[in-house]
Sequence to fold (137 residues):
Amino acid sequence: MDALYTAVATANGREGRAVSSDGTLDLPLALPPALGGDGQGTNPEQLFAAGFAACFASAMSAVGRQGKIDVKDVSVTAEVGIGKDADGGFGLSVVLRVELPDHLQGEPGRALVEQTHAFCPYSKATRGNIPVELVIE
Fold:
C-alpha cells in the first residue's frame, strides 16, 4: 500500500499526554474511573472510538455515493470496550451503532452497513483481531 497520508502522534502512557506531530491534537491522558483512574483526561479507547466512528461514517458516504444512496442523515457511534482476555492480558471489543434515516430502514440499510463494514479501513484493520458488532438503529 502506498500511503496517501500518514498521521503521527506521540504518547507517554495512559496517564500522560498524546500529541500529534502537527500539534493539532494535544490531549491529557488519564485512566477512566472504571480502570482505577481519575478520568481527568481522555483515554486510548475514546480516541479509538472517535476514529472508528468517523472513519465508518466517511466510508458509508463513499459507499453511498457509489450506490447513489443518500446517507447525509446517518450517524455512527462506536463503543470500544477493554477487558481481560483469555490469555490474562487485555483485549478490545467494538460495537458500532449505526443510526439510519427512515428511507434506509430494513434490508437496504442492512446491506449498506455490511458493504461499509467490508470497505472501511478501520473495519479491515480489526477484522479477525477485535470482535466488532454492528447494530442498526
